[in-house]
Amino acid sequence: MINMKILLVHLPKTAGTVLSWYARAVPEFEYYLNNGQAHYPASSVVNRQEYFIVGFVRNPWDWYVSRYHYFTAMAKQGIEKGVSKYADAGLPGKHFVQKFPTLKDHLMFGLSNECKAERFWMSQMYQYMFCDRNSEKLLLNFVGRTENLNEDMDTVFELIKTSPSISFKNFLLAESPYRNSSEHNHYSQYYDQELIDLVQEKDGDIVQQYDYQF
């Protein structure tokens, strides 16, 4: 693994925007754009053996809140056309909010026959982005947590025995913040017990494997 180039596979809403800017500053780290397109799965990476492939996950309860507020802010950008297609019911921000005034309305939509999104739940997105489509085998060499982003990026460089030209932590200190975040309260304020249990049910494997809790 020495001198291998790091390749990020970007699961949405897991700090991929700031990591893409870091990749522009560090030659050892590459953000997988695939001809300019983000959010391409690991299964589509050509010559995977040439890379040390990494990705990040996020507390699922927090992830749904972040995605919900991202969709509410998409009035100017239009509907979601990428890897999360139809998770927004094909509605731009203003109309999305009208149909889903609360996070609970949106998550319940994910249970309905009306929902046509193949990757509505984080567990589905994880399988699509990080795993082999036939065997469900994980194709990444390392999966970190966005909550431990600085430490996990240090670990990645240690694993390939490479020192970056600038550490991720120092990059954040030196550069203007590159973020694609939405403004909202702490995620816990958007949940009742029914929703807490629903996310636990849908994403229990991620919760257990990456040691998350509500």
Instruction: Tell me which oligomeric state these chains represent.
Output: single chain
The SS-based structural class is alpha/beta
Large-scale geometry: globular
Largest sheet: 4 strands, parallel
State the helical fraction: 25-40%
Radius of gyration: 17 Å
C-alpha termini separation? 36 Å
Order of adjacent strands in the largest pleated sheet: 2-1-3-4
State the helix count.
9
Listing every helix as H and every strand as E from the N terminus to the C terminus, the arrangement reads EHEEHHHHEHHHH
* Mean of pLDDT: 90
Number of strands: 4
The fraction of residues assigned to DSSP E strands is 5-15%
Low-pLDDT parts are: none
Describe the model.
It is a single chain. The chain is of the alpha/beta class. 37% of the residues lie in helices and 8% in strands. It contains nine helices and four strands; from the N terminus they run E-H-E-E-H-H-H-H-E-H-H-H-H. The chain is globular. The termini are far apart. The mean pLDDT is 90.
